[in-house]
Amino acid sequence: MYRLVQKFGGTSLADLDAIRHAALRVKEAFLDKQQAQADVKGLVVVSAMGDSTDRLVAQTQAYTSNCQQRDYDVVLASGEQVSSGLMALALCQQNIRACAMQGWQVPIYTDGNHSTARITDIPQKNIVAAWRSYDIIVVPGFQGISPDQHITTLGRGGSDTTAVALAAAVQADICDIYTDVDGIYTADPRVVPSARCLDQITYEEMLELASLGARVLHTRCVELAMARSIPVRLRPTTNNNEGTLLQQEGASMEQPAITGIALEDDEAKITLLGVQDRPGVAAQIFTPISEQHISVDMIVQNVSADKKTTDVTFTVAKKDLASCMKVIKDCPITYSALRTDANVAKVSVVGRGMRSHAGIASKLFATLAAHGINIQVISTSEIKISLLIDQSNGKAAVRHIHKAFIEQ
Amino acid sequence: MYRLVQKFGGTSLADLDAIRHAALRVKEAFLDKQQAQADVKGLVVVSAMGDSTDRLVAQTQAYTSNCQQRDYDVVLASGEQVSSGLMALALCQQNIRACAMQGWQVPIYTDGNHSTARITDIPQKNIVAAWRSYDIIVVPGFQGISPDQHITTLGRGGSDTTAVALAAAVQADICDIYTDVDGIYTADPRVVPSARCLDQITYEEMLELASLGARVLHTRCVELAMARSIPVRLRPTTNNNEGTLLQQEGASMEQPAITGIALEDDEAKITLLGVQDRPGVAAQIFTPISEQHISVDMIVQNVSADKKTTDVTFTVAKKDLASCMKVIKDCPITYSALRTDANVAKVSVVGRGMRSHAGIASKLFATLAAHGINIQVISTSEIKISLLIDQSNGKAAVRHIHKAFIEQ
Questions:
Q1: CATH number of A59's domain
Q2: Is the CB of residue B79 less than 8 Å from the CB of residue B42?
Q3: By the CB < 8 Å criterion, does A59 face chain B?
Q4: Which of A180, A201, A235 is a domain's end point?
Q5: What is the rounded CA–CA span in Å between residue A353 and residue A346?
Q6: For residue B82, which residues of chain A lie inside 8 Å, CB to CB?
Q7: pTM recorded for the entire structure
Q8: What CATH code is carried by the domain that includes residue A375?
Q9: Rounded to an integer, what is the distance from CA B74 to the centroid of its chain?
Q10: What domain range includes position A47?
Q11: Does one domain contain both A50 and A175?
């Protein structure tokens, strides 16, 4: 039996015409597989229509004090319930034997953390039973059921996770995530016109790109796909391109030095100069920051010349800069100077090929130097190099790197 | 333990302010009872907000062919799900320990007739268990769960039925139905300014009035209340008036001759003259009409002068007149003439007092005669007399009858 999971996001379900179009995509893929193989069964995961989740959130926010997240989830989950019913109706109209099953019917078990629940288990029993009467089961994304039998929601971006978790539960042959882009590009095509859509990418590379501005798939969903080895394909809703396949690294996959380049310019840089160089200083800085729910991205600390003091540089989201500065000023640490810079861009180059291709970093630095672009901060991981540069150089840097590494 | 059921309709939940106001009404009633009795528990039943059901119906109607009612119900039930969550949040904000439970959680068992399901059973176990942690459980009206565990909806007006069925399940002390009117009036106050709100009314009287244009409570809900002897009170949302209590006839209740007068002017009269007077003719006329789902209201057949032919008069909704005429013309019966009149009004006087007060009918006919109003058709039941008169006389007739019987 071929088992196909397909997921459609809110922009692909913006209105009734869009749902009808998405239903046609489901039908095409289903019939296509049926030609090759007699026994095909499908699961379709849907987000809420267009901006309906925003509208529901706004309604719940009218009642702020003493609120239980439980009832907030009851309201929010209704958005996906509506689109699941409408998608099932649209599929029936296309003569596909389809029906909707809600999170509590599947059931999609989650923990009890309302509004940020995590999926704990999806038994395949009820889905397999429903497949006896229907070819396609439509399941609302983003929702599940808690141990005490209440509706939970998974947080924004949860629908992708629902799709991958369902694909794992039924051992799907493929999990197609339909989006409004053609797939994963080597760089943002608006910045680099010659950027090309990748046929394939490894989970690890996607994780680095997902957390770096290529916000096509939620990190959480990629982690789950990687842990359960689910082949996930990002496909466009609007054309028949094959999209980008996420899978494990295999011997057959070619290994270019760099797979993709990401640019992020919504971060601000904070530098503490002349911080006392002793154990516990980093914790004294970053603990109060995290307590304010401010997320810190890059952290770089250099050995200082005098070996008594050191310089610490880190980045936060621009929107968090003011509140982060307040935390630092209330912090009982001593430093000689505090500098901030909101005019920075972070350029990250990602590629599993770095592990085997020597000299990527030096070629990268040389490429930027040749174009007079100064590097402020460098941070590296096994398959990623991130650079902080002046914001005005961001796009040019991406183009030069793309030309040097990918268009070679 | 005092058990209070309260139900709010869509107009009482039109927007977030209206929900907040309804939550205040719940709180007031709850605290009021708590002063008299320590142990008070409540159930609040809610309809969908304002016109949200119309919006959801419109969405489902985009997909007409091959549609399963099952998925239609999934979409429709979301409206009450949203309002139940918002009501629970609004109650929590008022420091009431409240939570929402959906139809499948209660569970409200129904038959499998999607979109027109009937409630078959509501076990009280889960509600009683939830009352250990919460004082008020908010339940969406209009929805339940089928024997094969799918969401069902009860059809329009189903939320009142949900409230009464829940009141029966938990043996509630009172079922308060909040509406946008003050209660049941002796006549439509827009027609008869001196009409007064009734303190009480029997189920039987309400049934006659409910099917006659005083469309405050659905017949189905009144029938259930009567069968299970549930005290139901119609109360205004906007003021603290006591409203009208529906209950069984008791010795203590005064028995005026007439309780209420209803006027309906959306019916049309059809008369078949000279129909052959033999067994089976009535069936030949009305079977094809009912097969077209046309609802027939009054049916009057007179003994004819020649004992060979008879005249049959009946009424249908004005909107059904054209299609009904088509059915009759296709009908294999012979008649001498066919007459229709869309300019009729039906005046019905209802009162259990009729059973003991002789001469109501003659006084009624005399009242209309004194004002020169001609009666076209008369139909009676045990506690009701319905008259068909010219539409132009409708409002005047109601005023004269009200003056003669109720303002006496």
A1: 3.40.1160.10
A2: no
A3: yes
A4: A180
A5: 21
A6: 56, 59, 74-75, 78
A7: 0.82
A8: 3.30.2130.10
A9: 25
A10: 2-180
A11: yes
Chain B residue numbers with beta carbons less than 8 Å from the beta carbon of A138 are 71
Pairing of strands A151-153, A109-110: unpaired
B249 located within any domain: no
Q: B272 and B133, same structural domain?
A: no
| Residue at a domain's end among B117, B148, B180 | B180
Residue A353 covered by a domain: yes
- Please report residues of B whose CB lies closer than 8 A to that of A98: 71
Bond before B123 cis per omega within 30 degrees: no
Rama region for A362: left / alpha / beta (φ>0; ψ in -120 to 50; rest): alpha
| Residue numbers of B between 89 and 108 with CB closer than 8 Å to A | 89-90, 92-93, 95, 99-100, 102, 104-105
Smallest Cα–Cα separation from B135: which of B38, B268, B7? B38
DSSP B393: G
Structure-token pair, residue A102 = 């809600």
For residue A103, which of A46, A65, A176 has the smallest C-alpha distance? A46
Tokens, residue A1: 């039996």
For residue A332, say if its preceding peptide bond is cis, omega within 30 degrees of 0: no
| CA A86 to mean position of chain CA atoms | 26
Residues B12 and B146 in one domain: yes
A95/B66 touch (CB, cutoff 8 Å), yes or no = yes
- Please indicate if any CB of chain A lies within 8 Å of the CB of B21: no
Residue with tokens 């008869």: B192
Interface contact flag, A70 B95, Cβ < 8 Å: no
Sorted by sequence, the CB contacts under 8 Å of residue B163 that are 6+ apart come out as B5, B6, B7, B43, B45, B141, B175, B177, B221
Residues B154 and B266 placed together within one structural domain of the fold: no
Quick check: is A226 in a domain?
no
- B100 vs A contacts (CB less than 8 Å): 70-71, 74
ipTM above 0.85, yes or no: no
Query: Does some domain include residue B248?
Result: no
Would the CB atoms of A81 and B77 count as touching at under 8 Å?
Answer: yes
Query: Measured between CA atoms, how close is A181 to chain B, in angstroms?
Result: 27
Tell me the HSE value of B312 on the side-chain side, using a 13 A CA sphere.
Answer: 20
Q: How many domains does chain A have?
A: 2
Are the beta carbons of B88 and B99 closer than 8 angstroms? yes
Question: Is the Cβ of A88 closer than 8 Å to some Cβ of chain B?
Answer: yes
8 A C-beta contact, residue B3 and residue B170: yes
Residue labelled with tokens 């304010």: A292
Q: How many CB atoms lie within 10 A of CB B337?
A: 10
Rounded Cα distance between A253 and A356, Å, is 14
User: What is the distance between the alpha carbons of residues B217 and B157, in angstroms, rounded to a whole number?
Assistant: 8
State how far the Cα of A173 lies from the Cα of A230, in Å rounded to an integer: 8
HSE-CB of A71 using CA atoms within 13 angstroms:
31
Per-residue pLDDT of chain B (408 residues; tens, 9 = 90+): 899 999 999 889 999 999 999 999 999 999 999 998 879 999 999 999 988 888 888 888 877 655 678 899 999 999 999 999 999 999 999 999 999 999 999 999 999 999 889 999 999 999 999 999 999 999 999 999 999 999 999 987 799 999 999 999 999 999 999 988 888 999 988 899 999 999 999 998 888 886 655 567 888 899 899 999 999 999 999 888 899 999 888 755 566 778 899 998 889 999 998 888 777 788 888 888 888 888 888 888 877 667 788 888 999 999 999 999 999 988 888 888 999 999 999 999 998 888 776 688 888 999 999 999 999 888 888 888 999 999 999 999 999 999 999 887
Amino acid at site A309? T
Residue type, A16: L
In the block, residue with structure tokens 């009937």? B118
Cβ within 8 Å, pair B68-A95? no
For chain B, the C-alpha Rg in angstroms (whole number) is 24
* Short-list A114, A118, A158, CA closest to A10: A158
Q: Are residues B278 and B392 in the same domain?
A: yes
Residue A135 sits in the same domain as residue A269: no
